[in-house]
Amino acid sequence: MASESMAPPATAPRNGPTKISEEAHLVPITYYPPSTQRTFQVNARAIADKPYAKYFNKDLFIYSDIPQYIRQPLPAKGVLPLAEARTLLNPGHTEYENGWCELPDGGAYVTSRTRFPGATGDMVRWWFWWHSAENERYALWFPYDHLSVKSSYADRLARKDLSDTQKWVGSQHLVNEFIGAEELGIRICFVDPAVYGLPWEDLKAAGYEAAVCAELRHHTLPVKLGDMLHLWRRAEGGLELRSRYWMASGMKLELPGKLNVPLDYVLDAVGLKRKLLGEHIAYEHFIHDQTEFTNLASFLPALYEEYLAGKV
């Protein structure tokens, strides 16, 4: 269970440079739409007899320096273009590590920094296949919002001859979850970070211990919806996670024969992006990201230790 004792020491200037050692404490999440409350009850019943049930948290938290970033959108200069992802290799932090906004074409952008005290890259790489083996494990991550997960690498998950990374890089996770009060289905297609100009050798040299990057696709249609980067860097007392999401950005219809039809212009022209995503999804997704990763960080080291000991 998350507790204030897990909070690293420090304060952050408004969207300014930050360190994991900043003084902050955990504050409770109080936003639980009724649909997610019902999901929690379903998940609680399903997980009750699992050996990892003690990590299923009813009370969820974010750090006390995060609400300031929820209250208003980022300015335009706070958006990192996907083409400039390599700037995340630079030392220190950008001016805008946390926030959300609607993009000019109606898409959504989220930047999020979360703390992972006591965590290692090995734990992260393990988690990204382990949680996909059954819905109850996925529910640990966000008990109120996570409904189901199905990995295209399901036949690899029990193999001992594969590394943790080989069990999810190149796979697709079909997930159903709530973002705010809206239930969404999406295919998370994990790719090598080199796709975004971030080869592992460069990430390692910049102090990163783990990287999880993916293209986001519609759950049933051959349509690319966006991209996400999760980069875990060494920090005082553990790791810090620097995440970026570009949603409804670089959208394309993917046809047989590697024929891709760009969709951004058409969907922007009819206002569909802004209607379906825009500031609403950007806002809700920032809160979702902060909640799920702060929760994961609260139990990941202990759960991983139990896994190594053969208890889960």
How would you describe this protein?
Its cofactor is Zn(2+). Pfam families: DAPG_hydrolase (PF18089). The structure is a single chain. The chain contains 8 helices and 11 strands. The relative contact order is 0.19. Strands 3, 4, 5, 6, 7, 8, 9, 10 and 11 form a 9-stranded antiparallel β-sheet that branches. The protein has a two-stranded antiparallel sheet with strand order 1-2. A hairpin with a 4-residue loop joins strand 8 and strand 9. Residues 1-21 have low confidence and may be disordered. Helices cover 27% and strands 29% of the residues. The two termini are 17 Å apart. The chain has helices spanning 34-47, 67-70, 121-130, 135-141, 200-205, 264-269, 272-276, 278-308; strands spanning 26-28, 61-63, 99-102, 108-117, 146-151, 172-179, 182-191, 208-218, 223-235, 238-255, 259-262. The protein is globular and about 50 Å long. With 312 residues, the chain is α+β, with helices and mostly antiparallel strands. It has a single domain (40-308), classed as Alpha-D-Glucose-1,6-Bisphosphate, Chain A, domain 4 (2-Layer Sandwich).
Strand content: 25-35%
- Provide the CATH top-level class: Alpha Beta
Uncertain spans: 1-21
Oligomer: single chain
Shape: globular
Number of helices: 8
Query: Could you give the order of the helices and strands?
Result: EHEHEEHHEEEHEEEEHHH
**Radius of gyration computed on alpha carbons:** 19 Å
Helical fraction: 25-40%
Q: Termini separation (Å)?
A: 17 Å
Largest sheet: 9 strands, antiparallel
- Average pLDDT number: 89
Secondary structure category = alpha+beta
Give the beta-strand count: 11
What CATH architecture would you give?
2-Layer Sandwich
* Number of domains as seen in the coordinates: 1
Q: Under CATH, the topology is which?
A: Alpha-D-Glucose-1,6-Bisphosphate, Chain A, domain 4
